Each structure stands twice: as structure tokens, then as C-alpha cells.
Amino acid sequence: MAIGCGASIVKIILFVVNFIFFFLGILAVALGITAIVKNSALEVLTQFGDAENYDVTSLLRTGAVVLIVGGVFALVVGFLGCCGAWKMHKLMLQIYAGIIIIILIIELTATIIAIVFTSDVTSKLKPILLERIDAKFDGKLNTGDAFTLGVNFAQVKFDCCGVNNYTDFDGANNWNKTLSDGRTASIPVTCCKITNKDSFYDNPSSAKYEANCQTSPSDVNSNWKKGCYSSIYDYAKDNAALVIGVGITIVIAQVFCIFFACCLIRAMKDQLNM
User: Which of 25, 43, 150, 246 pairs as cysteine with 74 (C-beta 3.0–4.6 A)?
Assistant: First the structure.
């Protein structure tokens, strides 16, 4: 079907954009499958080791499944956009534009909800996190508990301790505060100032910190008085401009994709009426 010069340019742009999206979908699916295969091997190994690690493998598997589902969705959308543009297929372009419109509506709705209910989330999230610390946190570096893994990572990443401060761990029922030398810990290991963060992320048991940090915490050897809630909030606020910029860029790109798809559909209609 012959179309005008302007529509041809739109066709090429839409094809290239969605080809990139299609390629990213393939990459996501490949990474997800690779993670599942490696995770299956890890499960076999853990049969001969610590059974608690099954929680970790389950967490990894869930992440891999999410990656695969997201990748398949990107594949479908990218395929519709690519083929619809290249073959000038009206139905494909209509479905493609419809999907992008739905995604855009969901994004805008989620943004509005997040803005409107920010204060409610702030007031309700802290108590929930404190309850989870009391019920789930075990204080181990090589833990099999997903919540403890998250707390450990957050405390090291953001140089913080607890939701508000170190006292949040006073009621942690699953945390054995007695150290190997018989002393009683006042704070978890990850509340200490970890000097080898890069190594810690790969191997938590390699954490390096001052020997007396857990029993005699101070502002010098630990982050015991600095809560993670305020630290993460400050981090998000400091990077808000970047997040907003990326979000606006994505929305603009989606609007252009919808506009380009509609332009091609209109060009096909005009061509048929000639």
C-alpha cells in the first residue's frame, strides 16, 4: 500500500521504537529463564545444606517469573507495533494503540492515587513494618527469610537502622541477640557501618565492621540512631526530579506511539478513499 512521505517516516519511527521494545522483551525473557535454571540448580544444592535457603530460592524464582511475564508482555506489544507498522496492518495497530492507551490510563491512575493517599501510606506503613520486624526479623546475615534479607539490604544500602532507630529491634522475637562469645547484641550486624558494601551484596557473610559495634554501638561505628524510613524518604526526595523526568519521558513516548499508530491508521483510510 503506497502512503505519503510523512506517513512513511512515522511508519519507520514506530517500527524502530517497537523493535527496541521487542528486543528488550526477548532479553527479559532470556534473563528470567536463565535465573530459573540457575535457581533450580541452587535448590538441588540446598538439599545438602541449610534448608532455610529454600526461602531465598523461592524469592529468586518469583522475581524470575515476574521478569518472564513482563518480557512476554513487551514481546507482544513490540510485535504488534513492529508488524502493524511494517505491514500497515490496521487491526494490529488498533490493538497496539488500545494496549498503550490502557497502560497510560493505569499509570496516570496509579500516580493520582499515590499523590492523594501519600499521607495515609506514611501513617500506616510504619506500624506494619514494625510488626513485621517483631514477627519475622531473625538478625542473620545468611538468612532464609525474605523480609530479613530486605531489611539487611536496606540498612546497608542507606546506612540506617530500623524503621525509626535501633530500638525497633527490641521486640524482634526471632532474633537471637546472644553472640558467639556470649555477649548480648544491642543492634543487628547490618546496623553497623559496613566497610565493604560491594562484597556484602554478593556475600553477606563477608561483612566487615568494628568488632564491638553490636555490643557498644556509637555514632562512629554504627548507624543506630538513623532510621531507614527517613533515609529512604530523603533518598527518594533527592532523586524525585530524575524519577519525574523519566516518568514524563515515558508518558510522552507512549503518547507519541499512540499518535503515530493513529496517523498510520488514518493514512490507510485516506489511501482507501482515494
Answer: 25
